[in-house]
Design goal:
195 residues, mainly alpha, 10 helices, 62% helix
């Protein structure tokens, strides 16, 4: 973990000008960014990689409060409610505005459902979005997972995925194909060997 006297670099707000977010959504994004920056610092992540993580964070919910019509316009091939469309819509808009990093775009596009092919930007966003301290449910357990992430990112990712998939199953929602592939990738022999 980081030394007590060291603090993560400042997390400057970088919501895109085209973002459609409420004040509470912006506060959520800021908490996710702070957590990702804290993890990057604790893990000694190079500045360029830290910036990738933070670009994904600031983009992930940039259209969360957009109208259904706008989400459908930007992500016409994505089925389902805004909970599943806002990521693909934000990724499409970010790409149109010049974002070229495939890992960042995949992190944003699939942050609600998971993706087997994610690089670390997607894995960090998926976990930080779920573990940020402003969420009211299961606060102590989520705080423990958040504090453990820098030392055990793969173990925490598996635990977060298990909780998120269980929630989908309990909600009686069908599991999107990327979620099934993501879950199965975490259960592969190579993933099990890293446990």
């Amino acid at each position: 973990m980081k030394p007590a006297d060291a603090a993560p670099a400042a997390v400057r707000p970088t919501l895109p000008a085209w973002a459609v977010v409420s004040e509470s959504r912006r506060a959520h994004i800021e908490r996710v960014a702070a957590l990702a920056a804290e993890w990057a610092h604790a893990m000694g992540v190079p500045a360029a990689e830290r910036e990738r993580w933070l670009r994904a964070v600031w983009l992930h919910d940039a259209l969360r409060d957009a109208t259904e019509a706008r989400l459908a316009e930007l992500a016409p091939s994505t089925p389902g409610p805004s909970e599943l469309r806002h990521g693909p819509a934000a990724a499409a808009r970010a790409k149109a505005e010049g974002e070229t990093d495939r890992g960042v775009l995949d992190a944003v596009r699939y942050h609600s459902v998971g993706l087997a092919e994610w690089d670390m930007a997607g894995r960090v966003l998926y976990c930080a979005d779920y573990l940020e301290p402003g969420r009211a449910f299961d606060a102590a357990s989520r705080a423990e997972l958040a504090s453990r992430f820098p030392a055990d990112p793969e173990g925490v990712l598996r635990e977060v995925a298990a909780r998120r998939v269980a929630h989908l199953v309990e909600s009686r929602w069908s599991l999107p194909e990327p979620t099934v592939r993501f879950w199965n990738s975490l259960q592969s022999p190579s993933a099990a060997a890293s446990r």
